[in-house]
Prior knowledge:
By secondary structure, the chain is of the alpha+beta class. It contains ten helices and eight strands. The chain folds into two domains: about 10-70, Arc Repressor Mutant, subunit A, CATH 1.10.10; about 80-250, Beta-Lactamase (2-Layer Sandwich), CATH 3.30.450.
Amino acid sequence: MASEYDVPAIRRTHDILRVLASHRRPVKASELAEACKLARSTLYLLLDCLEQRRWIERRDGGYVVGIELMALGSAYLRQDGLQTAFQAAAGAFVARHNEVVQLATLDGFDVVYLAREDARRPVRLVSDLGLRLPASACALGKALLASLSPEDLAARVPDTLPRVTERSLATRAALDQELAQVRNTGLAQDLEEVATGLVCFAAYVGVTPLGKRIAVSTSIPTDRLDEAHRRDAMEGIRLVARDIALRVIPGA
């Protein structure tokens, strides 16, 4: 059973970092105080401590995430040899198909994007590293949800499915139907459910020795997705998933 013991300094630090990570610009101390509901005296003590350790940095009258926090966070990918495995498999896919490849994990009912190998041509994406999306709305999420036990799945799925576009799944029955198809075919897809004009295909990789449940996907604009390219991309992303699994998951 998880402990409910609370360490205020850690909780407050976490809140500060989450606010900074959610902005693309420096965040002023006054904004942090309001967002985190902290007294100025407490806030400045925490900011000073975080700045000394370079978890945050001062920029243009505000604060941004610092280089040391980035270095610490990148260990999540380096562990298990996941970064090296992804780069090798995704690089081969991009060289052959010239489409982007994304790696993600499941956190509760959220998909969290971990890595991306870009194509040699522009594509409008919503997969910034660290971004969270509802698992029911994207191909990666469906691939990951389909890998769960019935009990684990039931514990994660909310009563109301969050939607990103009007094409996102709206009901548990629709989600269950899609997950059954994923289990049968080994491939998940979203058809403009995250972004209009973008189709995604995803395949489940597995659970790494350190417990990361991961999947990979490719995202392709609808205006260049003919039937031949669709078939090639679907088979290609299956091969990427298999390649990564062989490199990082014992017994795959």
